Amino acid sequence: MISEQIMRRAFELAERGRGAVEPNPLVGAVLVRDGRIVGEGWHEKFGHAHAEINALAQAGELARGATCYVTLEPCCHHGKTPPCTEALIKAGIARVVAAMPDPFPEVAGQGAAQLRAADIAVEVGLCESEARRQNAPYLMLVNRGRPWVHAKWAMTLDGKIATKTGESKWISNEAARRRVHELRGRMDAVVVGIGTVLADDPLLTARPPGPRTPFRMVLDSLGRLPLSSRLVQTARETPTLVAASTAASEAALGLLHSAGCEVLTLTPERDGRPSVPALLSWMGQKRWTNLLVEGGAQALGAFLDAALIDEAHVFVAPKLFGGAAAPSPIGGQGRATLVDAWQGIDWQVENLDGDAYLHGLSTQSLRKCQRDSNPISNRAPL
Question: Is pLDDT above 70 for 379?
Fold first, then answer.
């Protein structure tokens, strides 16, 4: 069997854990002995067994003398589970091929060193670019101390998110909206601006529920979120947070807190809006890994202006609204020159019952994940 094919099978397995394992990384493992696969596994849920352990359990005695292909350097520390390196050594694995080193401070090359000290051959770097792409959110959290930011919007062919009178329901079709719910179900938080709440009164839940229950967050400088809104009315059932600025009324924020909302007060930017970098830093301290920014234009513009959009999910409906007054997806200050434009890479295009779904990564963000090697060291063991 070709090594690259085996590693790509490990990537496929790892992908099954997306949304369930964070803040841990996605990891898949394949055990090969005498040219055939004898065991497979992936990290299925945070706090549960890691990929290597699951693959070893499937292989049983056939693991002795086998090669373990794994998408990330095996862990060598006690976190929620015992070290995978010890299990590999005990099982008699002869060789480990890891796609990339684990930048987590308690591993960071030590896992590979421990295996080599036990006379296990270790190779690191097979399909490393694919591995870093798959675990970009994990790498962003470990290396930069913030979550990976997904930006989502639905628009017409002429780039409008509403008509000139403000009508926006529904631009996208039912299939596209189902995909949005799937996205929500694997996020740690979903963010909208107060303008979107006042205009649409969204619920922002994943329906049906996904592997995660995301925090619903509102960028609300002055604490204007209505107590009658669906977000506030369901705040005791689904976690809801209001990110306000220091200019907000203490009385207004107190009422929101009494209604069940969590309130976070941030120092405002020059435009009076809550600081996006400060908000992401706060999320990083909570070890949140994925954030979905759903709009509206001012919220998306704030993230673009701060150069903090890592991935774009764009739903394009085959409609034309026209009108100079009809809003476009991203507001804010914008970029002044072409060279400063947000650039995407690895684009995928999917037909969702007639709507187009475009999905791609920020070139700059992906480059950071490919080259970063200075992890933040004050993280709790995973």
Answer: no
In 3D, which of 18, 14, 8 has the Cα closest to residue 212?
A: 18
Q: Are 241 and 216 within 8 A, CB to CB?
A: yes
Nearest to 172 by CA among 184, 160, 186: 160
The stretches of the chain forming alpha helices (DSSP H) are 3-15, 51-59, 84-91, 110-117, 128-134, 136-144, 174-184, 194-200, 230-233, 250-258, 276-285, 297-305, 363-371
pLDDT number for residue 377: 37
- Residue of 21, 42, 105 lying closest to 381 (CA atoms): 105
Comparing CA positions, the residue from 49, 35, 43 lying closest to residue 5 is: 35
Under the banding of pLDDT at 50, 70 and 90, the label for residue 78 is low
Check pLDDT > 80 for residue 136. Answer: yes
CA triplet 35, 38, 39: central angle to 5 degrees?
135
Q: For the chain, what is the largest distance between any 2 Cα atoms, rounded to a whole number of angstroms? A: 70
* Catalytic-residue membership of 52: yes
Token pair, residue 176, equals 């596209």
pLDDT, residue 378, reads 35
In terms of pTM, does the model score above 0.90?
A: yes
Would you say 170 and 152 are in contact if contact means Cβ atoms under 8 Å apart?
no
Distances (CA, A) of 232 to 176, 235, 311: 26, 5, 29
pLDDT digits 0-9 by tens, 260-295: 999 999 987 777 788 999 999 999 999 999 999 998
346/132 Cα distance (integer angstroms): 13
Angle of CA points 352, 357, 360, to nearest 5°: 150
Q: Does residue 296 have a cis peptide bond before it, meaning omega lies within 30 degrees of 0?
A: yes
Catalytic choice (4, 22, 44, 52): 52
The answer to whether 72 and 102 have CB atoms below 8 angstroms apart is: yes
Between strands 148-156 and 290-295, the pairing is parallel
**Tokens at 56, concatenated:** 């070893």
